[in-house]
Specification:
globular, single chain, Arc Repressor Mutant, subunit A, alpha+beta, 2 domains, four-stranded antiparallel β-sheet, seven-stranded mixed β-sheet, sequence-specific DNA binding, Jelly Rolls
Length: about 290
Protein backbone atom coordinates (compact mmCIF):
# COMPACT_ATOMS: atom_id res chain seq x y z
CA UNK A 1 0.00 0.00 0.00
CA UNK A 2 1.31 3.50 -0.73
CA UNK A 3 2.46 5.61 2.20
CA UNK A 4 -0.33 6.73 4.52
CA UNK A 5 -1.74 10.10 3.59
CA UNK A 6 -1.18 9.83 -0.19
CA UNK A 7 -4.45 11.27 -1.58
CA UNK A 8 -6.04 10.29 -4.88
CA UNK A 9 -5.97 12.67 -7.84
CA UNK A 10 -9.74 13.07 -8.28
CA UNK A 11 -9.23 14.97 -11.56
CA UNK A 12 -8.03 11.63 -12.97
CA UNK A 13 -11.07 9.70 -11.75
CA UNK A 14 -14.33 9.38 -13.71
CA UNK A 15 -17.42 8.89 -11.55
CA UNK A 16 -20.61 7.13 -12.64
CA UNK A 17 -23.97 7.12 -10.86
CA UNK A 18 -27.02 4.98 -11.66
CA UNK A 19 -30.18 6.26 -13.30
CA UNK A 20 -33.23 6.53 -11.00
CA UNK A 21 -34.80 3.49 -12.66
CA UNK A 22 -32.23 1.10 -11.16
CA UNK A 23 -32.07 2.52 -7.66
CA UNK A 24 -33.24 0.41 -4.72
CA UNK A 25 -34.51 1.52 -1.28
CA UNK A 26 -31.67 1.83 1.19
CA UNK A 27 -29.05 1.26 -1.52
CA UNK A 28 -26.69 3.77 -3.14
CA UNK A 29 -24.13 2.96 -5.83
CA UNK A 30 -21.30 4.74 -7.60
CA UNK A 31 -18.71 3.59 -10.10
CA UNK A 32 -15.13 4.84 -10.26
CA UNK A 33 -12.66 4.63 -13.14
CA UNK A 34 -9.12 5.87 -12.58
CA UNK A 35 -7.68 7.16 -15.85
CA UNK A 36 -4.08 7.43 -14.64
CA UNK A 37 -2.21 4.43 -13.18
CA UNK A 38 -1.27 6.19 -9.94
CA UNK A 39 -1.68 4.28 -6.67
CA UNK A 40 -4.17 5.70 -4.19
CA UNK A 41 -4.36 5.54 -0.41
CA UNK A 42 -7.39 7.03 1.35
CA UNK A 43 -8.96 6.83 4.77
CA UNK A 44 -12.59 5.67 4.66
CA UNK A 45 -14.51 7.92 7.04
CA UNK A 46 -17.28 6.24 9.06
CA UNK A 47 -20.68 6.36 7.36
CA UNK A 48 -24.14 5.11 8.45
CA UNK A 49 -24.09 2.26 5.96
CA UNK A 50 -22.44 -1.06 5.23
CA UNK A 51 -20.07 -0.56 2.31
CA UNK A 52 -19.27 -3.04 -0.46
CA UNK A 53 -16.24 -2.11 -2.56
CA UNK A 54 -16.11 -4.41 -5.58
CA UNK A 55 -12.78 -4.52 -7.38
CA UNK A 56 -13.18 -4.53 -11.18
CA UNK A 57 -9.54 -3.77 -11.95
CA UNK A 58 -7.06 -5.75 -13.96
CA UNK A 59 -3.81 -6.50 -12.18
CA UNK A 60 -3.13 -5.70 -8.54
CA UNK A 61 -6.36 -3.83 -7.84
CA UNK A 62 -7.64 -2.77 -4.43
CA UNK A 63 -5.54 -3.04 -1.28
CA UNK A 64 -7.33 -2.45 2.01
CA UNK A 65 -6.40 -2.68 5.60
CA UNK A 66 -6.87 -1.85 9.25
CA UNK A 67 -4.16 -2.15 11.90
CA UNK A 68 -3.14 -5.79 11.79
CA UNK A 69 -4.96 -6.54 8.51
CA UNK A 70 -3.84 -6.07 4.91
CA UNK A 71 -5.64 -7.80 2.03
CA UNK A 72 -6.39 -7.42 -1.66
CA UNK A 73 -9.62 -7.53 -3.61
CA UNK A 74 -13.28 -6.73 -3.01
CA UNK A 75 -14.38 -6.22 0.57
CA UNK A 76 -17.28 -5.40 2.88
CA UNK A 77 -16.89 -2.76 5.59
CA UNK A 78 -19.48 -2.98 8.33
CA UNK A 79 -20.78 -0.10 10.42
CA UNK A 80 -17.96 1.50 12.42
CA UNK A 81 -15.11 -0.41 10.71
CA UNK A 82 -12.42 1.49 12.62
CA UNK A 83 -9.19 2.76 11.11
CA UNK A 84 -9.78 1.56 7.55
CA UNK A 85 -7.74 2.58 4.53
CA UNK A 86 -8.29 1.53 0.92
CA UNK A 87 -6.28 2.13 -2.20
CA UNK A 88 -3.73 0.42 -4.38
CA UNK A 89 -3.48 0.32 -8.16
CA UNK A 90 -7.21 0.71 -8.73
CA UNK A 91 -8.45 0.83 -12.33
CA UNK A 92 -12.20 0.42 -11.83
CA UNK A 93 -14.38 -0.35 -8.83
CA UNK A 94 -18.03 -0.31 -7.85
CA UNK A 95 -18.94 1.02 -4.41
CA UNK A 96 -22.30 0.06 -2.92
CA UNK A 97 -23.64 1.60 0.28
CA UNK A 98 -26.31 -0.41 2.07
CA UNK A 99 -28.34 1.18 4.85
CA UNK A 100 -28.47 -1.13 7.88
CA UNK A 101 -32.01 -2.30 7.06
CA UNK A 102 -31.04 -3.13 3.47
CA UNK A 103 -27.78 -4.73 4.67
CA UNK A 104 -29.71 -7.03 7.00
CA UNK A 105 -31.82 -8.21 4.05
CA UNK A 106 -28.92 -8.62 1.60
CA UNK A 107 -26.06 -9.79 3.80
CA UNK A 108 -27.77 -11.50 6.70
CA UNK A 109 -27.21 -10.70 10.38
CA UNK A 110 -25.53 -7.30 10.21
CA UNK A 111 -24.46 -7.58 13.84
CA UNK A 112 -21.75 -9.92 12.58
CA UNK A 113 -20.36 -7.12 10.39
CA UNK A 114 -20.51 -4.17 12.75
CA UNK A 115 -17.00 -3.06 13.64
CA UNK A 116 -15.42 -5.43 11.13
CA UNK A 117 -13.98 -5.58 7.61
CA UNK A 118 -14.24 -8.79 5.60
CA UNK A 119 -13.51 -9.90 2.07
CA UNK A 120 -16.52 -10.11 -0.24
CA UNK A 121 -15.80 -13.82 -0.63
CA UNK A 122 -16.01 -14.30 3.15
CA UNK A 123 -19.48 -12.73 3.11
CA UNK A 124 -20.92 -14.03 -0.18
CA UNK A 125 -18.90 -17.20 -0.72
CA UNK A 126 -18.57 -18.41 -4.31
CA UNK A 127 -21.22 -15.94 -5.44
CA UNK A 128 -18.66 -13.15 -5.00
CA UNK A 129 -16.47 -14.32 -7.90
CA UNK A 130 -19.49 -14.84 -10.17
CA UNK A 131 -20.78 -11.35 -9.48
CA UNK A 132 -17.35 -9.83 -10.09
CA UNK A 133 -17.06 -11.68 -13.42
CA UNK A 134 -20.49 -10.45 -14.57
CA UNK A 135 -19.66 -6.88 -13.63
CA UNK A 136 -16.27 -6.95 -15.37
CA UNK A 137 -17.84 -8.32 -18.57
CA UNK A 138 -20.52 -5.61 -18.69
CA UNK A 139 -20.21 -3.13 -21.56
CA UNK A 140 -21.13 0.01 -19.61
CA UNK A 141 -21.67 1.40 -16.13
CA UNK A 142 -25.41 1.45 -16.78
CA UNK A 143 -25.26 -2.31 -17.36
CA UNK A 144 -23.15 -2.79 -14.25
CA UNK A 145 -25.62 -0.88 -12.10
CA UNK A 146 -28.47 -2.97 -13.51
CA UNK A 147 -26.60 -6.19 -12.74
CA UNK A 148 -25.79 -5.04 -9.21
CA UNK A 149 -29.39 -4.00 -8.54
CA UNK A 150 -30.62 -7.37 -9.79
CA UNK A 151 -28.12 -9.26 -7.62
CA UNK A 152 -29.00 -7.24 -4.53
CA UNK A 153 -32.73 -7.50 -5.18
CA UNK A 154 -32.63 -11.28 -5.55
CA UNK A 155 -30.13 -12.16 -2.87
CA UNK A 156 -31.67 -13.68 0.29
CA UNK A 157 -30.15 -12.53 3.53
CA UNK A 158 -30.73 -15.82 5.29
CA UNK A 159 -32.88 -14.30 8.00
CA UNK A 160 -36.36 -12.96 8.69
CA UNK A 161 -36.99 -9.33 7.66
CA UNK A 162 -36.22 -6.50 10.03
CA UNK A 163 -39.18 -5.64 12.26
CA UNK A 164 -41.22 -2.72 10.85
CA UNK A 165 -40.72 -0.95 14.17
CA UNK A 166 -36.94 -1.24 13.85
CA UNK A 167 -37.00 -0.08 10.22
CA UNK A 168 -39.20 2.89 11.15
CA UNK A 169 -36.88 3.84 13.99
CA UNK A 170 -33.90 3.81 11.63
CA UNK A 171 -35.72 5.98 9.08
CA UNK A 172 -36.75 8.42 11.81
CA UNK A 173 -33.13 8.59 12.94
CA UNK A 174 -32.04 9.48 9.42
CA UNK A 175 -34.85 11.99 8.95
CA UNK A 176 -33.96 13.64 12.25
CA UNK A 177 -30.26 13.73 11.25
CA UNK A 178 -29.43 11.91 14.47
CA UNK A 179 -31.07 14.48 16.72
CA UNK A 180 -33.61 12.08 18.19
CA UNK A 181 -34.38 10.65 21.63
CA UNK A 182 -34.62 6.88 21.99
CA UNK A 183 -37.48 7.17 24.48
CA UNK A 184 -39.45 9.21 21.99
CA UNK A 185 -38.79 6.77 19.16
CA UNK A 186 -39.88 3.84 21.33
CA UNK A 187 -43.14 5.63 22.09
CA UNK A 188 -43.74 6.27 18.40
CA UNK A 189 -43.57 2.56 17.54
CA UNK A 190 -45.43 1.42 20.68
CA UNK A 191 -42.50 -0.40 22.26
CA UNK A 192 -40.71 -0.01 25.54
CA UNK A 193 -37.27 1.55 25.43
CA UNK A 194 -35.73 -1.76 26.52
CA UNK A 195 -37.43 -3.74 23.76
CA UNK A 196 -36.50 -1.23 21.06
CA UNK A 197 -32.91 -1.20 22.25
CA UNK A 198 -32.73 -5.00 22.23
CA UNK A 199 -34.42 -5.59 18.86
CA UNK A 200 -32.60 -2.74 17.13
CA UNK A 201 -29.23 -3.99 18.35
CA UNK A 202 -29.98 -7.60 17.41
CA UNK A 203 -31.23 -6.78 13.90
CA UNK A 204 -29.06 -3.84 12.82
CA UNK A 205 -25.94 -4.53 14.84
CA UNK A 206 -25.85 -1.17 16.60
CA UNK A 207 -27.79 0.43 19.45
CA UNK A 208 -30.32 3.20 18.67
CA UNK A 209 -28.21 5.74 20.55
CA UNK A 210 -25.03 4.77 18.74
CA UNK A 211 -26.91 4.90 15.43
CA UNK A 212 -28.11 8.43 16.20
CA UNK A 213 -24.58 9.52 17.06
CA UNK A 214 -23.26 8.02 13.81
CA UNK A 215 -25.92 9.74 11.71
CA UNK A 216 -25.23 13.05 13.44
CA UNK A 217 -21.49 12.62 12.89
CA UNK A 218 -22.12 11.90 9.21
CA UNK A 219 -24.09 15.14 8.84
CA UNK A 220 -21.31 17.06 10.60
CA UNK A 221 -18.63 15.48 8.40
CA UNK A 222 -20.45 16.49 5.22
CA UNK A 223 -20.86 20.07 6.43
CA UNK A 224 -17.19 20.30 7.39
CA UNK A 225 -16.19 18.95 3.98
CA UNK A 226 -18.48 21.55 2.39
CA UNK A 227 -16.41 24.27 4.02
CA UNK A 228 -18.52 25.18 7.06
CA UNK A 229 -16.68 26.31 10.20
CA UNK A 230 -16.52 23.86 13.09
CA UNK A 231 -18.32 26.19 15.50
CA UNK A 232 -21.24 26.57 13.10
CA UNK A 233 -21.35 22.84 12.42
CA UNK A 234 -21.50 22.09 16.14
CA UNK A 235 -24.51 24.39 16.52
CA UNK A 236 -26.21 23.14 13.33
CA UNK A 237 -25.88 19.49 14.31
CA UNK A 238 -26.96 19.86 17.93
CA UNK A 239 -23.65 19.34 19.72
CA UNK A 240 -23.29 21.02 23.10
CA UNK A 241 -20.28 22.99 21.90
CA UNK A 242 -17.27 22.76 19.62
CA UNK A 243 -15.41 20.54 22.10
CA UNK A 244 -18.29 18.06 22.02
CA UNK A 245 -18.10 17.99 18.21
CA UNK A 246 -14.34 17.45 18.41
CA UNK A 247 -14.76 14.48 20.78
CA UNK A 248 -17.40 12.82 18.61
CA UNK A 249 -15.34 13.26 15.46
CA UNK A 250 -12.35 11.76 17.23
CA UNK A 251 -14.50 8.82 18.36
CA UNK A 252 -15.88 8.01 14.91
CA UNK A 253 -12.93 8.87 12.68
CA UNK A 254 -9.82 9.31 14.78
CA UNK A 255 -9.43 12.74 13.12
CA UNK A 256 -9.87 16.36 14.08
CA UNK A 257 -12.61 18.51 12.50
CA UNK A 258 -9.95 19.97 10.19
CA UNK A 259 -8.85 16.45 9.27
CA UNK A 260 -12.39 15.41 8.40
CA UNK A 261 -12.89 18.58 6.35
CA UNK A 262 -9.87 17.62 4.25
CA UNK A 263 -10.58 13.87 4.07
CA UNK A 264 -10.03 12.72 0.46
CA UNK A 265 -12.93 10.26 0.61
CA UNK A 266 -15.40 13.07 1.33
CA UNK A 267 -13.97 15.30 -1.38
CA UNK A 268 -16.11 13.72 -4.11
CA UNK A 269 -19.23 12.78 -2.14
CA UNK A 270 -21.22 15.63 -3.69
CA UNK A 271 -20.61 14.01 -7.09
CA UNK A 272 -20.73 10.29 -6.23
CA UNK A 273 -23.62 10.46 -3.75
CA UNK A 274 -25.60 13.58 -4.71
CA UNK A 275 -28.80 12.41 -3.00
CA UNK A 276 -27.09 12.32 0.40
CA UNK A 277 -25.10 15.54 0.08
CA UNK A 278 -26.75 18.09 2.39
CA UNK A 279 -25.33 21.25 0.85
CA UNK A 280 -25.36 21.54 -2.93
CA UNK A 281 -21.93 22.36 -4.34
CA UNK A 282 -20.98 22.53 -8.04
CA UNK A 283 -18.80 19.68 -9.31
CA UNK A 284 -15.13 20.52 -9.11
CA UNK A 285 -13.12 21.40 -12.20
CA UNK A 286 -11.81 18.34 -13.97
CA UNK A 287 -14.38 15.89 -12.55
CA UNK A 288 -16.69 14.20 -15.01
CA UNK A 289 -20.01 12.69 -14.05
CA UNK A 290 -20.76 9.64 -16.19
CA UNK A 291 -24.05 7.95 -17.07
Amino acid sequence: MPPAGTPPDWTAVDIAVPAPSVRLPGVAMAGFRQRLPAPMDIAMVAHPSVTLLIDLSDGEGIVYGTPGLRRRGSFVAGLLPGDLRAGGQVGECLQIRLGPVAAAAVLGPSAELTGTVASLEDVWGRDAARVEDRLRAAASWDERFTIAADVLGRRPGGRTPVDPEVARTWLRTLAGRGRVRVDGLAGEVGWSRKRLWSRFRAQLGITPKRAARLVRFDRAAYLLAAGHAAAGVAAECGYADQSHLHREIRTFSGLTPAGVAAAPWLAIDDVAWPASWPTRIPARNGERLLR
